[in-house]
Amino acid sequence: METTGTDGTAEVARWWATAITHMAPGVIELRGRPVQDLIGCVGLTEMVWLMLRGHLPEPPQAKLLEAALVAGVDHGPHAPSIAAARMAATCGVGLNNAIATGVNLLGDSHGGAGQQCVELLHDVRAAQAGGADLDTAVATVIAAWRERSPYLPGFGHRFHPVDPRRDPLLGLVDGAVADGVVEGHFVTAARAVEAALVRPGRRPVPMNIDGATAVIYAELGFAAPLARGLFVLSRSIGILAHAWEETQTGRRNKGPIPPTVLPEYRPTSAG
Hints:
By secondary structure, this protein is mostly helical. The protein is built from twelve helices and three strands; from the N terminus they run αβββααααααααααα. It has two domains: about 10-55, no CATH class; about 80-245, no CATH class. It has a three-stranded antiparallel beta sheet with strand order 1-2-3.
């Protein structure tokens, strides 16, 4: 392997080559932009876009992304990530550890539905590109996804008959489509999936927060795995707030149930 000089420093430099950050004595550039030109001029949502995409968004794009990030900030202590972070905060660890505890629970079943819904919507679009009409594409994709799981990511909610975050987000998407900010293919696909889930005599299965934000991320051109990463960024704010609140109570070693309640003991027969 080619190196410069005899100490191999060029090889090491190439090992961590990046297009994201240029750092040298007195220099910090992010995606080619001096940090001093960004401070006070660029909002956090715009920075997220810049770091992930390599360029700054147009203001309407930033507005749509920010709406999705705001919507996913918190859902209360019954969410495993929040509860775990609050418990961790009482165990003598720092806030960074408490946040990491909560974030590490954001897996496929809790926190991953946005990514999965983006994948589902791309499957619908791929089926359309293959010649299927929208209804046929939706039916085919739903059937394929239900072979893996009875749950369709991005639709239905165990607490809310209609997720209160759904309509504001979809309204913003509709406005962005009307203004030519996004094309609208993915919101059309998502609404077609929602309509296909309507069954006579059965409870509706409307789009939830994961579905609505998946629409936004897909319309804005973010890759499916980034939908989970963006949700993690958003939910980290709520996790931090809950962890900090818990530290203010002075409680130590908080468990998942009050100490006055003992878990049921279920003995099993030997052998």
